[in-house]
Amino acid sequence: MNAIDHIETDRILTMFLELVQIDSPSGQEAEIGKHLMSTLQDLGCNVRRDGHGNLIACYPGQGDEIVLLSCHMDTVGTDTGIKPVIRDGVVYSDGTTILGADDKAGIAVLLETLKVFREQPDLQHPPLEIVISVSEEKGLVGAKKLDKSQLQADWGIVLDSGGPIGTLVYTGPSQNHIDAVVHGKKAHAGSAPEKGINAIVVASEAIATMPVGRIDEETTSNVGIIQGGEATNIVPDIVTVNCEARSRNDEKLAAQTETMVKAFEDAAAKYGATVDVEVRLAYQGYLLTPDQRPYAVAARAIESLGFELIPKKGGGGTDGHIYTAAGIPCVVLSAGMADVHTSSEHVAIQDMVDSAKVLIQALTQSVSAT
Q: Out of 102, 129, 136, 237, which one is annotated catalytic?
């Protein structure tokens, strides 16, 4: 039997259904962290939890090359009480919440891989370093806070993408957070509005003049949060606006960021207001080439199993950004999740099985290729 023949469909489904029913919105990962720590220990891993809640586990293998496997345990938003429903081989939520396949499909694939290796000790695979992070959905917080100097991996695979099995994300953008605070002047909106400077109007004009959305093939921007005002009879004197810009081209990112900052400054000057703008790099972009180890190993595994290799340019951030920047280049593979962050989120059972096939194939082939 081949290594992938030991994957059990019912087992991976059971694990996934159990995981999505453990509430774990970002910041509330204690219960699932405890569950995963116990599960990893039962599978023969040496596991520790850092001070932020991240789980770091080691699983023994063969050879000098150590491979990082990465997932995150938190789910986006605040949904709890997720009730999975299976229709025609696909797992959905009941329609009132997200499903949490992002990233519990990835975790199920990871755990199934470890179960296969545990039950088949003759299978050759490299030593594994496993990180299951917290608060990924809040801006890769867990991976950022993790002490990367303690990691020993040479390269890694992140199980945190959707798309057909065979999707391989090899590049991702840099992202800037752009936070603006507009300072106007408070006044009574009925008796003396002319004495005020409406911070909401200033912010609105700035937003209306800046390019937002898809800027080009490599670059996007968004205005995500606006807060301000006290009552309809008060001219608001302060508004905060939280924005972002992303690009796989750092020069384009700088230009888009400058355009957004200037829009706030120009609107403030026009109305006699002031604005404080803070720009923070959320994460640095990366690019893997086909000859780099994680890309080459994953691509070989995908194609050797008969799946179409689908190289993809990512538009979002994953923990792979953080590990790559720390010197552990990572490729991101599909775990089959679809329509993530919505009540229509779903994952096909066979896609999770096929994702496990790709991961096991990649790991076992990586030993034979060294």
A: 136
CATH number of the domain within which 249 lies: 3.30.70.360
Q: Is 136 a catalytic residue?
A: yes
Say if residues 279 and 261 touch (Cβ distance below 8 Å): yes
Is 332 exposed, middle or buried, given 0-12, 13-18 or 19+ CB atoms closer than 10 A? buried
Q: Specify whether 160 is catalytic.
A: no
Helices 9-20, 101-119: crossing angle, 10 deg rounding: 140
Catalytically annotated residue among 74, 112, 154, 237: 74
Q: What is the pLDDT of residue 368?
A: 74
Tokens of 141: 């917080």
In the listed set 283, 314, 344, which residue is the last one of a domain according to the structure? 283
76 shares a domain with 8 = yes
Regarding whether 96 and 23 lie in a shared domain, the answer is yes
Residues 304 and 168 in one domain: yes
- Structural domain harbouring 34: 3-172+285-368
Last residue within a domain, chosen from 243, 266, 283: 283
| DSSP assigned state of 136 | G
Same-domain pairing of 157 and 30:
yes
Q: Residue 130 — very low, low, confident or very high, per pLDDT cuts 50/70/90?
A: very high
Rounded distance, CA 109 to CA 45, Å?
A: 16
Give the tens place of pLDDT for each residue, 75-120.
999 999 999 999 999 999 999 999 999 999 999 999 999 999 999 9
Q: What is the pLDDT of residues 312-365, one digit of tens each?
A: 999 999 999 999 999 999 999 999 999 999 999 999 999 999 999 999 999 999
* CB-CB contact of 170 with 161 (8 Å): no
pLDDT band at 53 (very low <50, low <70, confident <90, very high): very high
